[in-house]
Amino acid sequence: MFRPRGAPPGPAGPAPARSSRRPARTRLVAAATAAGLGLGLTACAGAGAVGGGDGEQIVVAIVSNPQMQDAISLQDEFRAEHPGVDVQFVSLPENEARAKITASVATGGGEFDVVMISNYETPMWAENGWIENLQPYADATEGYDPEDFVPSVRDALSVDGDLYSVPFYGESSFLAYREDVFAEAGLEMPERPTWDDVRELAAELDDPARDFSGICLRGLAGWGEVMAPMSTVMNTFGGQWFDEDWNARLDSPEVRDAVETYVDTVQRYGQPGAATSGFGDCLTRFAQGNAAMWYDATSMVSSIEDPASSTVAGDVGYAPAPVSETDAAGWLYSWSLAIPSTSEHKDAAWDFVSWMTDKDYIRLVGEELSWERVPPGSRLSTYEIPEYAEVSEAYADETLAAMNAATQENTMVSPVPYPGIQFVGIPEFQDLGTRVGQQMSAAIAGQQSVADALEQSQRYAQTVADTYQADQDADAAQDAQAGGTP
Questions:
Q1: How far apart are CA 62 and CA 337, in angstroms?
Q2: CATH no. for residue 413?
Q3: How far is CA 467 from CA 25, 205, 388, 470, in A?
């Protein structure tokens, strides 16, 4: 539970209580049904399947980010170690992968043996028995060393001290900027930039005539796309999705200021077509030298520092996430691997999961592909490898510092009743965040005003808030009745 500023340090409190009238499982199934409505769940039907052979087959659903594509490219190494396991991949863009995986796991579809999820889903899905406890597997696997995972990430993927998913990579967020461009313009990045600083720098460096934008920011609709960075801006401006009494707060002055800042910044100084730009689009633009700054996930370094795919490798500096009213503004997130409880091939699934998240895999990527492409932020030992330490000198300390600083205490102004920084840790958020993201994307596209986008978003959020307020009222009535019983 979030502590107000100035409160004494102490362990995190329990999650907000939910009424027994509508348990978390019911909420999750309802949210999953909404998220997956209309999506087919055939694993190999046009979804990027890879594999083949006569071994025990497992189906692995992952997000098609660059690091995950590297894992697919290295499958011959896995097959050499596990000739009896035949892997079929379903690799999809982030929004599609979330919806497909959620709908399948929540409804017990059984299509997948391994799923890529995050610290948003892991605790809720573990609570409902949808994914396996991986701690016994990890403890029994020689050399796997689960204690080597970055502590903040390990804790975020654990329930009662046991891992229910294991991290492929971990991330916070920071501001990447072109050191060469700044030097040429006679500009300097502040040690701890504010959003006012960022806007002034973006205005100075923006040059549409050369197809060079002052900054790149996500605008693509989706709770894991535009709402990831935008939520951190809302937080640092003092905004909340919900206050402690579960009142929706998306129409507050703080949220309005934050969203207006984000939208105006990307409209004035951002990339063309920003409303359809997700992480991958900004990655491509920045790596190809068409933007001066980019605020996004720290995992970007695996691609923008790779000379084979980036024209700016070696010319990039990294600053903390821009702030307004808080000490920090970065998020904490991990793409991780879990085994659905419906899998009929759990041992084979663990063979794959442990292979893709082991220390040896880190070295395999470095030696076979490049050290710049190593998945960051998952294991402490990664940062002790001499080859990786050399190539990551510009960003290793910044990455770990951002991950360590990514707490609600550091990144929020006011208490909130939910876990999460760039997401709201409730089942309904997958649908709510998507709906709000659509409104924000439309505002970035100029299809509606920020005021109209927030007015509609507030209605969506209050509908969710009403259910939690009803639960609180029911709990209070039950407590009162219990207190009055002789």
A1: 9
A2: 3.40.190.10
A3: 14, 47, 48, 5
